[in-house]
Specification:
Elements: E1 7-9, E2 23-27, E3 30-34, E4 40-47, E5 53-60, E6 68-78, E7 83-88, E8 92-98, E9 105-112, H1 117-124, E10 127-135, E11 139-146, H2 150-160, E12 218-222, H3 230-239, H4 245-252, E13 254-258, E14 264-272, E15 277-285, E16 290-294, E17 310-312, E18 315-317, E19 322-328, E20 336-344, E21 349-358, E22 373-376, H5 377-380
Antiparallel strand pairs: 1-18, 2-3, 3-4, 4-5, 5-6, 6-9, 7-8, 7-10, 10-11, 12-13, 13-14, 14-15, 15-16, 15-17, 18-19, 19-20, 20-21, 21-22
């Protein structure tokens, strides 16, 4: 299969046979769930300046070449003639429609094909504005809706519906037809079909054979600890004492990315909290002669802290070789810290290049990448 841009949060909880049970996961601001029929719904909350709320959801059933639906839900109530619009800076403006019918409703739905303007905008921006023209004393109300996690949520849907590498995928698109019987993610096969046995290489690593790009590059999600090398699991047992480790892996999955050089990156969930998920990262690089290596991550020099092996909410972007780490200060996710670490080829470590922090946990919702910049390698050096 061709190379796809692999943007995936550590916590994509796929890999369980979705015909046998529901799967769900929170991905930054978004929550995505797929039922036993592989119908998937991704949702995110938005808020007005008065903290009134809306929910934006993307729903897609599991038929080849089908579209998706985008629904805006609110609590106040809408009636005939009220207009609902969406803005995405630089992508679309005042896209939407009018409420019809005599009954008061609380939602409006827009049908979308994978390349239509709303879904395209959701993939490309960090936030959208939902504007509802209530009229009368209410006037118009704007709700800010974060898109951080939208790509991850749509990737989750592609994986669960086995569309990766196919023309009808939302994110992980490729040239293969939508009815291609080949399965780039065999661990998502129906339970009755069985899971393929994985051969073990000399170093004990599971020899996954899901070729997804040049030289066998792929992304996979593993939930069975029996399929995960012991060297990947040992830090969770011995160093970090991850509570309920096997259940955590079964529910959330270990993400493994094999790049074109045969290097594998394992992102392993350890401790699941309400706002933060603690994980650690193990790399397997046969070309270096280093079989397994627990990665460590820096903090700004002024903090004078040792490097960390366990980090919060990591997101591995294999396309540009960066790891972002986000620590949320509360369950509302309106404060905390945001870090960008770049992989340094040749020296084989992650280098901190940007650190942002918002200490005040006030009511204003701010995207982590918009937290105040407190340190960057370009401005402040080592």
């Amino acid at each position: 299969m061709p190379r796809i841009r692999l943007i995936a949060a550590f916590a994509i909880a796929a890999g369980m046979p979705v015909s046998a049970q529901d799967i769900a996961q929170s991905l930054r601001y978004w929550h995505v769930a797929c039922n036993a029929d592989r119908t998937c719904t991704a949702e995110v909350a938005g808020f007005s300046s008065d903290n009134d709320g809306v929910t934006l959801s993307i729903r897609r059933t599991n038929q080849p070449d089908n579209g998706a639906s985008v629904t805006i839900s609110e609590e106040i109530g809408m009636y005939e003639g009220i207009r609902v619009e969406l803005d995405a800076p630089g992508i679309f403006n005042a896209m939407g429609g009018n409420i019809t019918g005599s009954d008061v409703v609380h939602a409006i739905t827009f049908a979308q094909n994978p390349d239509d303007v709303l879904l395209d905008g959701f993939r490309r921006v960090t936030g959208v504005i939902v504007r509802i023209h209530y009229g009368g004393e209410m006037g118009s109300v704007e709700y800010r809706v974060p898109m951080n996690g939208a790509v991850d949520a749509m990737m989750f849907m592609d994986i669960a519906q086995e569309r990766v590498g196919r023309v009808d995928a939302l994110v992980a698109r490729g040239p293969f037809p939508s009815d291609d019987p080949s399965d780039p993610y065999p661990y998502l096969n129906d339970e009755e079909e069985g899971e393929p046995e994985l051969a073990q290489s000399d170093d004990g690593a599971a020899d996954e054979h899901m070729e997804d790009g040049p030289n066998g590059s792929y992304i996979d999600l593993l939930v069975d600890t029996g399929r995960i090398p012991d060297q990947v699991l040992m830090p969770g047992y011995r160093m970090f004492d991850c509570p309920g480790f096997q259940d955590t892996i079964a529910n959330h999955g270990v993400l493994v990315n094999r790049d074109e050089t045969a290097r594998k990156t394992f992102v392993v969930p350890c401790n699941i909290g309400k706002a933060n998920v603690q994980s650690y990262i193990v790399m397997h690089d046969p070309d270096r002669g280093v079989t397994w290596e627990l990665m460590e991550f820096q903090e700004p020099p002024a903090m004078n802290n040792p490097n960390r092996g366990a980090v919060l909410n990591p997101v591995w972007n294999a396309y540009d070789q960066t790891m972002t780490i986000t620590r949320y200060g509360n369950i509302n996710r309106n404060c905390g810290a945001y870090e960008v670490h770049e992989w340094v080829p040749g020296e084989n470590f992650f280098e901190l290049v940007e650190y942002r922090e918002k200490k005040s946990c006030d009511g204003a919702q701010v995207q982590p990448q918009d937290f105040p910049l407190t340190w960057s390698i370009d401005e402040m050096g080592d």
